[in-house]
## 1
Amino acid sequence: MSLDRTILAFAGVMVLLSVALTHWVSPYFVWFTVFIGLNLLQSAFTGFCPAASIFRKLGVKPGCAF
């Protein structure tokens, strides 16, 4: 799996996790969802994604976007 697809899968899992935590644990976990959304938005404009840096160091092969 390329870095691009890994990032998209990771973002999807994190969004689903944050929605589940909001539903079952505390409504304040909605701020985790907001953080993920803001991070996705800034990476669309700047091209910088902290998760991409981490996955790259873990040896995930690069893709087109990151």
## 2
Amino acid sequence: MSARTTIIGRDPASGAGIAVELDAGRIAAIRPASAPAGAWLSAGLVDLQVNGYGGLDLNAPGLTPEMVADLVAMLARLGTTTFLPTLITATEAQITTALRTIAEARRRFPAVAHAVPGVHVEGPSISPQDGPRGAHPAEHVRAPDLAEFERWQAAGGGLVKLVTLAPEHAGAPDYIRALTAQGVIVALGHSAATPDQIRAAVDAGARLSTHLGNGVAATLPRHPNLLWTQLADDRLTASFIADGHHLSADAFRAMLRAKGRDRAILVSDSVALAGQPPGRYRQPVGGDVEISADGRIGVAGTPYLAGAGLPLAADLARAMAMAGLTAQEALPLVTENPGRLLGMHGRLAIGEPADLVLWRAEGDTLAVDTVWVAGQEVR
């Protein structure tokens, strides 16, 4: 019989010290224990939106299974033990090729199969308008097509678990109902929808707002508008990019209060340039892009963002500072809440996968200390 590993920290749910015993890759027991005040122990982070990191681009034409495996290893060291690779608006051939590659990575590498329960397709049925469309290529925006979705699922072996769309497209409610009937989560984002179109989408089964407050027009009517409608509808959970660049502290704090912490999720929405050294980079899309020392990725010489530059653990720390959250209040936003939406992961409970993060307090925020994946310490 293999020896059990015991990890001691503070439980985010209760604040009490606990000892968590790991055996055969799962949590075998949890018992009371004395733990330092600043040592928090949580489930591994769950990120519903990862486009890339550290030079690895999930939307690149040359994506390989090895690149997916490298990304899994890189993110695990940063505390993200479960994530949805995110494919943005592109040709159908590009999307299906990426899905085949990710599916092959899951077959070949157990670590990828463990970390990647599915894929998030963000688009291609988003708003064609400048502003709401964001950085997605306008030439590939198209209406939702159930036949195309079925071809995605055939290519990836049913791997698509989350689809983000703009509900103003004709036929969107029927499309949403069809995907929801197959167990796929439908999210609303990159949209210029009216409140009535938002409500129709939620009535049809949409469950999530993708990076709420971003992917919308720069100016909106005071009321009504699509932000108020999504914040007010308790059937929708909302994801937020809390990196300090995509939302101001006041906006994030107000949106979090309106939506409620139980219906809020943090996502990184990280891109390939995330984690790279500060400097100027030449990109195929976006041209000259500049990374600042604080992780902001922007089009050089403009006020426009060119993606998100921080891993989820860093966003957690910034969210705590921006909204005045304690560790107990903030950790569910990156563990239990996104895990609950997926129907798996993110729980510190007996029988769950032994994907854990031990945190250390740094002032009023948290930093990753040690990570375990399937009961093994990540080096």
## 3
Amino acid sequence: MTAMTEELLSALDDSSKDVGEALTLPPALYTSEEVLDFERDAIYAKEWLCVGRAERIPEAGDWFTVNIAREPIIVVRDKEGAIRAMSAVCQHRAMQVCEGQGNTTTFKCPYHHWIYGLDGRLLGAPAMERTENFEKSDWGLPQMRVELWMGFIFVNFDPDASPLAPTLERYSKYLVNYDLENAVCPGTFTLEDMPWNWKVMFENFNDGYHANRLHQYVQDFCPSNLSAFPEPWSDDSNVIFRTSGYTHLDGGFNATHRVIMPVYPDLTEEERSRSTFALIPPTLCFGTAPDQCFFFLVRPKTAQTIDVEIGYIFHPSALEDPLFEEKVILSDAGVQVFVRQDQDATTKVQLGLNSRFAPRGRYSWQEESHVQFNRWLTQRYRAGWSNRAAATS
């Protein structure tokens, strides 16, 4: 049975109405491998994909790999200090050239020892001298576009993609006082094979409706009724976000309801009285609090499983504290309460979406961000559907 149909596409209209009228997305969008295959072409091949923080590769030759939508990617800082992204697929027999991270001057495919430079050029190809019309200059690693935003590295497979930063301006102004380019991410950790669709992850991250319901007691300082959607949605925007007000200054997502790390020093009193939660689909979930920022890098593996890389970002002064490591442990202990509750909820949501009784539900006003995400998604689905139809006609 085919999941991607004109009827399914038409059904998205009801998910893009005003929040008081809209229906939730059709359940098939969360469960079907055919839908994910469609998304690989319609979304992942066209959109800006966040792969990590620039500070992860500070020196020339530093590199790491990431796999997004079945595409292994090398992210590297070249000899001139520029960040590059390229396919990790050897152009000889398609073996992945490298995995993990490190520092190097060249990349050598372990299969037949083809050697590539930090710029992706093919530098060496053993025993190819008898191959007719073989020019090393024709066989470099395919390159991707790169853009930096707030210290994050984004890549794009589409050479004609419009710049990312102008499409994020609605949210960027909320981050100015965090000076994220100079903030510090001590490291990340990855949760593998989480049993839910990538869109379930995005919806849960930016769902103000469940804030002090699912997270009762631990998030009472940041209640659902203080959710706000301060910027009207724009069709040319690539960010969906909300603010979440606190009941007191310098709230913290832990059992004390107070910050643990040093507060970012340039924040206004208003900024110290709220968090922001933002989606930059299809890969980055990002949030702010007075003493830290946090991000989830979401990478689908199947229609119903994802990997999630998680990191925290602090003001540099936090690392000067002799008790920094101990405070990180305390802070993370509080966050893990939320993580456990969210993981239980999203696992059960995904199970429910597979049910014959899975609904197309209605939204609360506190879920305005979901409707904005639906509109973002519908635009890409329609464009991808049109492109597929044109390719087959």
